[in-house]
Design goal:
The structure is a homohexamer. Chain A has about 325 residues and is of the alpha/beta class. Chain A has a single domain, classed as Ureohydrolase domain (Arginase, Chain A). The first copy, chain A, has nine helices and nine strands. In chain A, strands 3-2-4-9-8-5-6-7 form an eight-stranded parallel sheet, with helices on both faces. In chain A, strand 6, helix 7 and strand 7 form a beta-alpha-beta unit. In chain A, helix 4 packs parallel to helix 5 and helix 5 packs parallel to helix 6. The longest helix of chain A is centred in the middle third of the chain and has 17 residues. Chains in contact: A-B, A-C, A-E, A-F, B-C, B-D, B-F, C-D, C-E, D-E, D-F, E-F. Chains C and E meet through strand 1, helix 2, strand 3 and helix 4 of C and strand 1, helix 2, strand 3 and helix 4 of E. Strand 1 of chain D pairs parallel with strand 3 of chain F.
Chain lengths: ~325, ~325, ~325, ~325, ~325, ~325
């Protein structure tokens, strides 16, 4: 399964959306259309222009959008993240030569569309998300989520843990997202992993947070995390370094047990990913992000997300899809 | 058929793209989803989030994208027009109270996706477009096109005239697009209607051009048009006026015979529609555009297009879909 | 009081924020600083760079920000409306020659800062807003609100009606905002005036809605409003017309009883005010907006708001403050 | 001479800048290149891609840039106005059918480049500008200036009056620019016409100001102007009106004596011309601007300018060149 | 004092600007509001939303804005730098865990507003700035300046040296700013440190310039600097390196004597800080900038500035405040 | 000749475009104007504001624009690349201290303007380009090209090889551009070097491609290149490394034989150069780009280009000229 995660961006695919597509009729599985046959501006923007279907049945993995941003503490807009990630994914081809992967040849993948969130009620939205993911997970399909603010990872992990038990977590982010509450609320994009711990959804000895930085409320803002058993890797410990050695340790730590990958785009330095709501300077580079994703090869990935993509702040675009190209 | 054209933006619809959609199961036809049930950022961006299908069979009308812009003389980018128009159409609801129209209750409408154009060869693209429209028109479906630069109207009208014979034309534009050639070429976005006249595709006594303006190559740039029998209505003759009386005359002129409507978004003043490649100041207003579209009620519309939408120049967005809301 | 509302933008003022300000020490009241003495980029951005104070005591009128946008159905961002309106208000001077008004000479005005909204819970935010406005209204100060999405007008009117009884309403908007519910919720930016009617906060025979337009869910979307006694003036009935005669009728209708003015910036055509979340084409012009505001002269205005200013969509800026300059 | 002013945007021209230009060798005069022969993105951006020359000798009229903006009270950037106006002028063709004018057939016109202003010293810049214009005017060439903030019109008019005596002035602007001083300075973009009156450069009985609006320092901000004999036409007196009758009166008033036209782009509503530093809402429309320019036909125009074009605030571009297309 | 400089972005604070703020009443000193209690979009934008006061009396340090940009050689706009830095500083919290610093617990800090500069006269502005800083410095308060173009550092250093004698200088910049004159002027943003040397304001043996790069007028553009005793560290000598060793040398060099830190944001590569007027490629990274600021811990910092922030060129924002988060 | 290529950005120059330029009359050669004498916003935007001339006679090297983008597979706009590169080059000075180079003292350089491409026909444009470059090359002038999409390098290399025989190639790019065909066409921006190999224009043993990355159609996308003898250096092999050692090897490989340098701006990471049509994440840094260009010192460079600059996607600008400043 990890081969898919690490190779999004790679092979031939059926597309029912465009006329005059001349593709081999013997393509056994869904594939993104090649720009050799279908022009890049052509076709409706599903993820990688894969087929859209309403049911996860028969799929090994699927892209799902969760266009919610009412858990955002600063600049909103991640409700349009799924739409923009899909649009920019038209650049991706089927093979990933760096990984030696042709995922669409071995896996059945499609785009399941979006969860119909409630934009006016965060509690209700979380219920809707959990319910939708319970169905996806029940079918044996691995969900790859396009967010949406980071609140959404909490109900997704509820569905994950219901199926797999407590899961390991690779959390790439500028922030730990383990605040207890803010403005009187237990639920917003700063609290999802606190809630997950509260509910026993995480295998805390297998939680790694990478890219953490920024000003804080106290001098030791990572005390809670470390007391739970999390490994917290600060951005400043990554500066000017390859993360290949770190990922070797992570692979060792995760072993063969279920792992969820949650990637907040603000882990990256805002120069590389300005389209996000709570940017923090001096973050990871795209090459480090690729090292992280590629470093997961061989692990038992049961789900993953890319969250906090808020496209209106990335006026040049062409950059928000990055983490899918490992 | 005109009720549809004049009321895009009106009625309940099935959408297979989002989970948790709670819509009445007895909806007899395709409808755009109501924001009362489906949040606006939810779902893949087909036109008005209508169902997407590969074949025009069984449809009364259909939206079709033609993402081509290599006939552009100034700023390119209209290849992304279909994508953006679809995205912004998520704002439209099913009823048009101004027209008293509920088009989706009487007509079967869907989105047929895009013609797979050749971005490197204008001649070949025109052949591909004509071929695609021949199939659509043959099925009895009325094509409503999302452009693309204005070159595309030439192969569309080839397919139209093949079915209907020479058609009437309501052409709303800042430019007459009847140049003979430029840079040595007979085919670019300044020549489509000259080529149509050359091939006898137009019923020239029923051609009206509205919104024409700008500097020119000669002192009498409309001589060719008028010598063919076209009515040319200059933008300066529209300033500060309602166009309701003009449209009464147009309805009279068009009668019950087949009419094609070609709407170049640069007919509008660039304040209202900056997202286009060859803007000209002192153009029509949105209210005049609505008067034009609404004024076609009762006519025998066999097809229509909205062209020259070049979204990267409309940084605020929220404005390019205007002409569909008549 | 109306003289203030109609003349925001007018006289000499004390500013504690800048050094080297050379202003007459005998200025009897708060005034915006003149650009003849203080450079426009100088000073912190309170509204019109008026003094900021924590209490409404002693004020005739006050500006208040409500940076909330989680009731938004389409594009969010109005949480930054108060900040941008204040920034752009640095252009305003103290006198309004068109109205013959020098409001700051007769009225004590200040900026009260913002209500500390709860960004993650719309219900709780409404409670906080109502509570804050109860205190302002109790002091006899007229609140002039900088929004924020339109949901906020509901708790403001709760505080208003508690003091004044049911109030008249001049509501300028593209939308009637009288939906009953959406996505299962009774509270979002499409429902505030329905809730106000439900709670008896409005003097329904003195409610006028101006600028209404757009596609709808049904053929007669204004039935509810008219059945309550509202006057609904469609945008299409305003095209190419002066609104001076309409406002004479409105003044007649409102009489001397308490009136609240709620101005949604999307009443304007998006060409004039692109910085908003749910734009609708073919709207009012700025000159019509000024005619509306100026037409209120002499009325008993007990409060007012400018809502739905979402600045990130107005990339040129310099336009969002318009309605304050009547 | 007015035919040129009123018809910028009109005939065949030599261009030394591009290879493979195939133009008739018998073109007797400078002409903008036709898009039929030279692609619009081709060639260095002189005004209308006319030839550039260092001396005004032999020219009937010439474009001159003055890239200065240190007289700006609010948003700077007009130093890049000349560059952007030239860039956008690539859209203009040689004939103006509305005016029946082919100016480049009767007049010798070129681009003289820019005055080398001193960006750090406004006084010194004014001296440099006056000196440059004295040379241009001495040669008998009519200068058509691309600004730059409005301060520059003061030294230009010094050169004008030195040659022609006190001149008439058609001043189109949102502001009267007759302040006496600000921040202790007698020279900035709010004072040029006060300085001109002080020095006797204007024939005050032939000064007309059109488009004036906005908040002010006093209740009667036009007293100075009217006491000098100026006619002040407020924007609100232009709303929803054709300006053809006004211009008939202006032509009568100006007679055959020398007239200078100074056009501040902020006269237009910011919807049409957002690229400026001190925008004021509810301004003129492009059609009114064309009526003003076209209405000058037959007058004895000795010079003109377009000032306050600050391109970074017009992100869509394609609109700043408007006033040259009359 | 350096603990403050190195930890801007860290501790609880009183804010008089928002209603419903629920903060401990026993907070002994000014603090930025925590996002746990006050939503980030709430409140007027002073620096870090600290209290604003008119006098430096009683303060250990204070933020001061100098909104001047008429010394700019290329793109203007830094007059709006103070406003935008304050706006973006709403993201900062009170503790800096990387430095182990809680500056607001030991120091009294506030925002003093802006110096009222003269936008039309650079000489006069320099006089106004010097006078304002003389007062601040006299009170014993350390000024932390938000610029404004780099010209402003010259009058600030006049005030500094008057109090402290010649000061050491840590100057981070793409340019040495030691030109003698340009366009005939001795005063613009390329000359401040030349003027400081001329007047003996610097302890030249303790001047370090870091980040220098770009094309030049001569082959040895650093001769003047080095002949004065400055250490010039080129950007190319920083590529791919940690600056921790360099800063150890700098600390050694500076010793315990008074040091001023002047940080021009164009020291950074424009990818990280596009909002500036004279960008140069291949600059420092944010992590290097933090290493520089953090490397000053323990030094005797008597003042500092962040200059050349020109926000309109940073369309994504969220990045200009970077250097305050060390 | 390489000294020029490696030092663009360096000496005194005559400029006929601005008045009041006070420059030494004894400047023996063309030079960019110094900002000490000519303000940066002053003058028409030729490359580095060098003189423009129609003929290459007498020149050692020349800048040439090729404003063509109809070979683009994704986002168009590179037709405006030459215009923007020239505009931004106003920042460059005459000396390059890093290289110890004063190129304008030893070489005669000018700007030759643009090739008049055919925007509607890629085949015809290639013929026009080849013809133009044949004339330039014939005169002994080294062409330095401002693109334009990468298709243009194919006809340029036709002219090069006609003069020099098969040339070595240093190709810096995210993509190999050796596809055989797409959408049925042999000519677009993905095929130029395949066509060059087909026609024997390259000395394949001296071809080096640097910066290659991204998803692909097959698992071994570099097989063709390597089978021809190309050296392919992947971006991932450059991460966090100085390229000085690589360039030593390249110099060894190239020897004294003719070398062409083709630099696609998308070789850079999109954070540094967002203004391009087919961005790929995790690319080269500006410092690596400078190491590449500077590493060519001493080689026999017969021509070079900077292609795929598509300015509308670089909203901050100030960055597209980067590669010329080595």
């Amino acid at each position: 399964m990890l081969r898919l995660l690490a190779t999004w961006g790679a092979g031939p695919v059926r597309s029912g959306l465009c006329h005059s597509c001349r593709q081999a009729s013997d393509a056994p599985r869904n594939q993104p259309p090649s720009p050799d046959w279908v022009a890049r501006p052509v076709g409706l923007c599903s993820m990688m222009r894969l087929p859209v279907q309403a049911s996860p049945e028969g799929l090994d993995a699927a892209f799902v959008g969760v266009p919610l941003d009412i858990g955002t503490s600063n600049r909103p807009g991640a409700r349009f993240g799924p739409r923009r990630i899909r649009e920019e994914s038209a650049m991706l081809r089927a093979a990933n030569p760096s990984m030696g992967a042709l995922p669409f040849q071995s896996l059945a993948v499609a785009d399941l569309g979006d969860v119909n969130v409630n934009l006016y009620n965060l509690q209700d939205s979380c219920g809707r998300i959990r319910e939708a993911y319970q169905k996806i997970v029940a079918s044996g399909c691995v969900p790859l989520t396009l967010g949406g603010d980071h609140t959404i990872t909490y109900p997704i992990l509820q569905a994950m843990a219901e199926k797999h038990g407590p899961v390991g977590l690779l959390h790439v982010d500028a922030h730990t997202d383990t605040t207890d509450k803010a403005l009187g609320e237990k639920l917003y994009h700063g609290t999802p992993f606190r809630r997950c711990v509260d509910e026993g959804l995480l295998d805390c000895e297998r939680v790694v947070q990478i890219g953490i930085r920024g000003s804080a409320a106290t001098l030791d803002p990572y005390r809670y995390n470390r007391s739970q058993g999390f490994r917290v890797v600060l951005a400043e410990d990554c500066w000017l370094k390859s993360l290949v050695p770190l990922m070797a340790e992570v692979r060792q730590q995760m072993g063969g047990k279920p792992l969820y990958i949650s990637f907040d785009i603000d882990a990256l330095d805002p120069a590389y990913a300005p389209g996000t709501g709570t940017p923090e300077i001096a973050g990871l580079t795209p090459s480090q992000a690729l090292e992280i994703i590629r470093g997961c090869q061989g692990l038992n990935v049961v789900g993953g997300d890319l969250v906090e993509v808020s496209p209106q702040y990335d006026v040049s675009a062409g950059r928000t899809w990055w983490s899918w190209t490992g």
